[in-house]
Write a sequence for this structure.
């Protein structure tokens, strides 16, 4: 983890939030490379699960919803963790996350656990009074139920169909930590998939398969499926599977898949007074659809993608027969934040002007970086460290033969490619990996 957090900061993936003010506990900012990586994940997910499917549509709802939503969903009453406090050092812990009966910090006596609600509260409007109390959403899911009727009426979708959303969620976690694993502000990618009750097992399997296939696409290997026991899962769920990952700090949740029955639509119907029933077009029979919910954390996706991509390996240097250690982020090519680096062999005017012209051209098609500082070997290593799949080197020969050297990240193989064919050549390399 230390290697990942330090690389993330050093190379501009993820910085501590508000750092010049001493930071803000467990808040993180995505830097220029991090935002590309995170956007690649969100865009790929959206393309895969919304745009390229005929049975899923998207929404982008408000972060702050009517507080009655959280009454209906049960969050105001039940969305809490057991909190204990050390009577000596006043450190607070989640009772279910510590093994000892005394304070893990100082050995002091702990208070008896009390339920602490994780909803993050604020006020809408200028008066900070009870009537104006609202909450930042703790999950994106509820908007899919609240907007169900509007989506159904405007899209005329037939069951089975899903509503998807990607966006921020907020939880006042008692013990955030482990870098971006558990934070108080994070992003989710969720789908509520509406079905007939009799078909829940079939669609549960379908989404489990989709989640497995996504993990493979993201390059994730160290994951497990954990069936959640009836005692542990929500009372309305007949089956829940957690996708867990072997993080350096232990095996913990990455994603989740839950059968939610008609719990949400039923409660929102009761609390809002609006019928959220669906009329079967063939029989006109009206019923409340049941729901399968696959959910993905965006930040945990970034974390596991970085953990899986990180490699240290021996690589030859420019000196004959010599090797040194290279750090290389072997991201799947679609995921890499920078796709192509353009590197003039030297800073000489005739080379750099040619390389810059190439950069201006390639940047129209790929996310590119231009780098002319230090030796070519050091620049290759820098690109390896951020996972750039292709480096394009402009050398003195390029001035004569109008060709460049393309170096591939993982094999380090180099190939001479004519400049006129470069964009097509690179496009083909990326297409092969889709
Ligand atoms: N709608 C269902 C739901 O929200 P969840 O298991 O509480 O389920 C879904 O959250 C996913 O959101 C998790 O699998 C995880 O990837 C991510 N997540 C939850 N809490 C998080 C936190 N505090 N920090 C970062 N990611 C979190």
């Amino acid at each position: 983890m230390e290697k990942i957090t330090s690389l993330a900061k050093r190379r501009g993936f993820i910085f501590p939030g508000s750092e010049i003010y001493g930071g803000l506990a467990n808040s993180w900012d995505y830097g220029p490379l991090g935002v590309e990586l995170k956007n690649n994940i969100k865009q790929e997910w959206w393309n895969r699960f919304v745009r390229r499917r005929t049975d899923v549509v998207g929404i982008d709802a408000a972060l702050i919803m009517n507080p009655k939503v959280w009454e209906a969903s049960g969050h105001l009453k039940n969305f809490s963790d057991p909190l204990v406090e050390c009577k000596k050092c006043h450190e607070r812990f989640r009772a279910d996350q510590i093994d000892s009966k005394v304070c893990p910090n100082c050995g002091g006596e702990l208070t008896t656990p009390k339920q602490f609600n994780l909803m993050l509260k604020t006020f809408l409007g200028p008066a900070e009074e009870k009537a104006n109390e609202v909450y930042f959403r703790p999950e994106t899911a509820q908007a899919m139920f609240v907007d169900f009727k509007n989506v159904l009426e405007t899209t005329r979708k037939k069951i089975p169909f899903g509503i998807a959303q990607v966006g921020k969620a907020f939880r006042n976690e008692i013990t955030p930590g482990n870098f971006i694993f558990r934070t108080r502000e994070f992003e989710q990618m969720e789908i509520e998939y509406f079905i007939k009750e009799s078909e829940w097992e079939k669609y549960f399997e379908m989404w489990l398969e989709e989640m497995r296939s996504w993990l493979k696409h993201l390059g994730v290997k160290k994951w497990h499926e954990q069936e959640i026991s009836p005692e542990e899962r929500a009372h309305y769920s007949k089956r829940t599977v957690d996708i867990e990952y072997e993080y350096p700090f232990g095996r913990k949740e990455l994603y989740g898949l839950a059968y939610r029955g008609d719990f949400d639509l039923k409660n929102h119907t009761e609390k809002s007074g609006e019928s959220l029933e669906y009329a079967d077009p063939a029989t006109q029979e009206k019923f409340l659809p049941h729901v399968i919910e696959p959910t993905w954390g965006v930040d945990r996706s970034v974390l596991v993608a970085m953990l899986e991509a990180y490699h240290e390996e021996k690589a030859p240097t420019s000196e004959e027969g010599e090797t040194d250690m290279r750090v290389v982020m072997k991201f799947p090519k679609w995921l890499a934040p920078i796709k192509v680096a353009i590197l003039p062999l030297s800073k000489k005017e005739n080379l750099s002007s040619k390389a810059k012209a190439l950069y201006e051209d390639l940047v129209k098609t790929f996310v590119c970086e231009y780098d002319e500082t230090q030796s070519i070997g050091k620049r290759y290593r820098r690109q390896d460290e951020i996972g750039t799949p292709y480096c394009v080197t402009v050398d003195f020969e390029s001035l004569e033969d109008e060709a460049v050297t393309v170096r591939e990240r993982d094999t380090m193989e180099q190939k001479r490619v004519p400049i006129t064919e470069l964009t097509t050549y690179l496009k083909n390399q990326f297409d092969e990996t889709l």
User: Anything to note?
Assistant: The chain has a mean pLDDT of 95. The pocket of glycyl-adenosine-5'-phosphate is lined by residues 139, 141, 171, 173, 182-183, 186, 188, 190, 253-256, 293, 295, 297, 299-300 (CB under 6 Å). DSSP finds 13 helices and 24 strands in the chain.
